[in-house]
Amino acid sequence: MNAAADGTRQATQETSDRREGFRAQLESWQARMESALAARLPGPEVVPSRLHEAMRYSVLGGGKRIRPALLFAAARAIGKSEEEVEGAACAIELIHVYSLVHDDLPAMDDDDLRRGRPTVHKAYDEATGVLVGDALQTLAFQVLTRDPALPASPATRLRLVELLAEASGSFGMAGGQAIDLAAQGQRLNLAQLEEMHSRKTGALIRVSVMMAAACASSLDSRVQDALAGFAAPIGLAFQIQDDLLDVLGDVTTLGKATGADSERAKPTYPAIIGIEASQEWARRLHAQALDSLAPLGSRADLLRALADWLLARHY
């Protein structure tokens, strides 16, 4: 009995140690991204200074840096270092932030709070918010073409641009947002909701993993399939968790208003299938994502830890 209890305590301690180790890694990645993004953004003293100041305000205002973390973890799984893929991580985060700035505008969600601070159009003005989004989007692709540490091959650079453009355009994030706006006040079925979220949120999650794969030459097809098999379900699980946090989360930890989805009559997983069913569906997608990583063995441990954290997060 004592041996069994000791074994349980040891297993619990090992789990706790793994979580702490991953949290330290995540914080390291977040700090790295703050420096990397700051270095790639124009300084506030450069004309037009107000626009550049607002760009830095939007990008450097904190954030979990989930998409760069996914790219870094995927890169580690295939033997690439953070230095080799940092430019791609910055490009993805610039696209993500541009989407948040535009989503917050009065023409979209009309939000006042983002990451615990006034949204860009509140801190500056609406026109500046539009221009910030425009400038961040174009800067993302400039980074992919110019970053000296990314693979030098023109074919690889072109593939990175293609992947990010597709994930952020009408067949990806922007298309998902259009579907979302058109669906407000309507009752979508589960398949329609999944289609919307696979574009609006899932596309950038998937491309975060697949851009890491694109940075590796001659990647084995089994590894490529494993990463793709992980990326799709984890992207959807992430959105379900976001929907749940809008119902169950707290503004002081989330850094943005909660309950906004129901106020705007937005179609969400909890609204369509209920809270418990949404939680169970997220768990199933999480398990599917982890199963897909089997061919990578221990090389994918950081991806597994990140997937665990995404499902368990409360902010």
Notes on the protein architecture:
The protein has 315 residues and is mainly α. The protein has helices at residues 2-40, 49-59, 66-77, 82-103, 120-123, 126-146, 154-168, 173-183, 190-200, 202-214, 221-248, 251-254, 260-263, 269-273, 275-292, 301-312; strands spanning 113-114, 117-118. The chain has one domain (27-312): Orthogonal Bundle (Farnesyl Diphosphate Synthase). Helix content is 73%, strand content 1%. A two-stranded antiparallel ribbon has the order 1-2. Strand 1 (113-114) and strand 2 (117-118) form a beta hairpin. Helix 1 packs across helix 4 (82-103), helix 1 packs across helix 16 and helix 15 packs antiparallel against helix 16. It is globular. Residues 253-259 have low confidence and may be disordered.
Describe the sheet with the most strands: 2 strands, antiparallel
Give the CA-based shape.
Answer: globular
Per DSSP E runs of 2 or more residues, the count of β-strands stands at 2
Oligomer state of the chains in this structure: single chain
Rg estimate, integer Å:
20 Å
Strand order of the largest sheet: 1-2
Number of helices: 16
The structural class is: mainly alpha
Q: How many domain modules?
A: 1
Q: DSSP strand (E) fraction? A: under 5%
Key terms for this structure?
mainly alpha, 73% helix, Farnesyl Diphosphate Synthase, 315 residues, 16 helices
Give a short overview.
With 315 residues, this protein is mostly helical. It has a single domain, classed as Orthogonal Bundle (Farnesyl Diphosphate Synthase).
